[in-house]
């Protein structure tokens, strides 16, 4: 999707790194909407592991230079019983992070359960559920590849979290002009009439 000139909004790049396939997705926050910009996957099957890391770094750097995101969101590492798989995932994640940081992007991490909860309403959703909900939320014509859908889900989750933080900041700013005693009562949950909320 190409955004009209002057209506760029805030671009968020979501990343779902893997040692074989790394998903990426770019969304735009504009007004109260989260809009799809682009998505894709970096497939590194059939190469040596060091070559995979180099390819992940180059491809993520290319996405960063093409879309110039304002922020990057990535899924937080989860514990894996297979130590070798966890190490490879950590290294792939490091290659993707290094590319994002080299592009000057601030990076935020989100737990997989937090992302699934934000997208489907449950932290234990299956990949296919995430894929279908991302398609609906962004109004896509077709299902994106599973890894790209996961990356878009991370970006959407980050967009929702930013919106929530902005609302809380606005509320806090609204209370800043109150008398200290009134602000403290509000903080403690008191409302008019002297009753607790």
Count the domains: 1
Overall, the morphology is: globular
Task: Work out the strand percent.
Answer: 15-25%
Number of strands: 5
Amount of helix: 40-55%
Which class best fits the helix and strand makeup?
alpha/beta
How far is it from the N-terminal to the C-terminal residue, by CA? 46 Å
**Could you state the CATH homologous superfamily?**
Ribonuclease H-like superfamily/Ribonuclease H
- Quickly give the CATH architecture: 2-Layer Sandwich
Q: What can be said about the biggest beta sheet? A: 5 strands, mixed
Description:
Strands 3-2-1-4-5 form a five-stranded mixed sheet. Helix 4 (127-138) crosses helix 5 (146-176). Strand 1 and strand 2 form a beta hairpin. The protein has one domain (10-188): Ribonuclease H-like superfamily/Ribonuclease H (Nucleotidyltransferase, domain 5), CATH 3.30.420.10. It is globular. The longest helix has 31 residues, at 146-176. It has 197 residues and is of the alpha/beta class. The chain has helices at 49-67, 83-102, 112-120, 127-138, 146-176, 180-188, and strands spanning 10-16, 21-30, 33-43, 71-75, 107-110.
Topology:
Blueprint: E1 10-16, E2 21-30, E3 33-43, H1 49-67, E4 71-75, H2 83-102, E5 107-110, H3 112-120, H4 127-138, H5 146-176, H6 180-188
Parallel strand pairs: 1-4, 4-5
Antiparallel strand pairs: 1-2, 2-3
Helix pairs in contact: 1-2, 3-5, 4-5
């Amino acid at each position: 999707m190409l955004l009209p000139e002057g209506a760029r909004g805030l671009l968020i790049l979501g990343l779902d790194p893997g040692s074989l396939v790394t998903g990426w997705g770019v969304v735009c926050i504009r007004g109260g909407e989260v809009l799809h910009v682009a998505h894709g996957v970096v497939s590194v099957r059939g190469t040596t592991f060091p070559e995979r890391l180099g390819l992940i770094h180059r491809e993520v750097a290319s996405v960063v230079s093409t879309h110039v995101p304002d922020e990057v969101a990535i899924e937080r590492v989860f514990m894996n019983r297979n130590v070798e798989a966890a190490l490879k995932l950590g290294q792939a994640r490091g290659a993707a992070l290094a590319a994002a940081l080299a592009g000057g992007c601030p990076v935020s991490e989100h737990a997989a359960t937090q992302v699934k909860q934000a997208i489907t309403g449950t932290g234990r959703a299956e990949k296919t559920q995430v894929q279908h909900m991302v398609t609906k939320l962004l109004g896509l014509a077709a299902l994106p590849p599973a890894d790209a859908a996961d990356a878009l889900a991370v970006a959407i989750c980050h967009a929702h979290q930013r919106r929530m933080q902005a609302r809380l900041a606005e509320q806090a700013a609204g209370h800043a002009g109150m008398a200290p005693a009134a602000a403290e009562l509000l903080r403690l949950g008191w409302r008019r009439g002297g009753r607790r909320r």
